[in-house]
């Protein structure tokens, strides 16, 4: 058993928040939202005792739950407002969507794997997060029926920001997406849409599973 597992929940929580701050998550609203969501609920099985470490971990369907500091930095870059409607591509464990739910009016989250959507929905119910709608869909096409969105967060890596997602972003909206040719490392970018078009900022290097077109088998 590691030292961390011997911590009380309060000590674990303090260490978790300290790690986030030391890696650049400084927005008090984001820290408060992350403090309210227990990452331990979103990691199951053999890796659950590592839930509070700042590391990505395996989840079913060969996917990963992102590193908490990356969740924090992406949320901070997205800067969702209380009245915003946010689209997340890549529900995965549901952890990122649960964090977003505390910061905006409504979250739509989609994943290509049925099992991940079903398990995440059960957690949203359990936590009383009624402003999240999870759907099985190919997120590279966005969610045309609910568009446009104030914010779009893509938690899988694409070669370029997918065109349908750019089209579904409101004027004044922000999209955060990891892009790059390589499977090993990508660049997190922030796309801001204004009347005159799109502007792009490079934020940092990240490592995400790829955005895959079409629905999964499970
Ligand atoms: N945000 C998640 C982590 C996502 S991992 C969390 O907080 O746990 C990336 C997810 O993107 C995987 O679950 C994968 O199935 C999903 N994904 C990949 N390509 C996709 C696509 N085209 N449409 C929807 N989901 C996709």
TrEMBL record:
Swiss-Prot/TrEMBL keywords: Cytoplasm, Methyltransferase, S-adenosyl-L-methionine, Transferase
Stated role: Catalyzes the methyl esterification of L-isoaspartyl residues in peptides and proteins that result from spontaneous decomposition of normal L-aspartyl and L-asparaginyl residues. It plays a role in the repair and/or degradation of damaged proteins.
GO biological process, any: methylation
Coiled-coil annotated residue ranges, if any: none
Lineage start: Bacteria, Pseudomonadati, Pseudomonadota, Alphaproteobacteria, Rhodobacterales
One GO CC term on file: cytoplasm
Family of this protein: Belongs to the methyltransferase superfamily. L-isoaspartyl/D-aspartyl protein methyltransferase family.
Protein name listed in UniProt: Protein-L-isoaspartate O-methyltransferase
